[in-house]
């Protein structure tokens, strides 16, 4: 047990030092900025597209098949929810991928 406790501070300080050195590298920093901006675009489109498609489909259903329920609002909510779920799922996959790459570099 004592050997295990002694190793933890060294491993932690090594990880902190390694991450700090990577953050200070200007080339990596520039790539991270562009990657982050690209992710904003992907997340935005993955939320906006299902929301707009759901809304347009709802408007079409409401004009061709009138009913007491608003298909526009229902499909807008479904599109927004599925878009957010899709974006969240994609971001979690990217996060895992980045973590796996960092582990391989160690």
Task: Walk me through what this model shows.
- The protein has one domain (2-105).
- The protein is built from three helices and no strands.
- The protein has helices at residues 2-24, 26-64, 71-105.
- Helix 2 runs antiparallel to helix 3 (71-105).
- The longest helix has 39 residues, at 26-64.
Element layout with pairings:
Blueprint: H1 2-24, H2 26-64, H3 71-105
Helix pairs in contact: 2-3
Q: Note poorly predicted spans.
A: none
Large-scale geometry:
elongated
Strands, count: 0
Q: Helix content range of the residues, please?
A: over 70%
Tell me the number of helical segments per DSSP (H or I, 4 or more residues long).
Answer: 3
**N/C terminus separation:** 25 Å
- Sketch the major β-sheet: none
Find the structural class using helix and strand composition.
Answer: mainly alpha
Output the radius of gyration. Answer: 23 Å
Order of helices and strands: HHH
Q: What descriptive keywords fit this protein?
A:
92% helix, mainly alpha, 106 residues
Summarize the structure.
This protein is mostly helical and 106 residues long. The chain has one domain (2-105). It has 3 helices and no strands.
């Amino acid at each position: 047990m004592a050997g295990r406790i002694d190793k933890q501070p060294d491993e932690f300080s090594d990880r902190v030092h390694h991450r700090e050195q990577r953050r200070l590298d200007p080339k990596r920093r520039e790539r991270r900025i562009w990657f982050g901006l690209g992710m904003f675009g992907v997340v935005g489109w993955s939320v906006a597209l299902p929301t707009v498609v759901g809304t347009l489909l709802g408007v079409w259903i409401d004009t061709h098949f009138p009913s007491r329920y608003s298909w526009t609002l229902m499909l807008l909510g479904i599109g927004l929810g599925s878009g957010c779920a899709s974006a969240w799922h994609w971001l979690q996959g990217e996060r895992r991928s980045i973590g796996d790459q960092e582990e391989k570099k160690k």
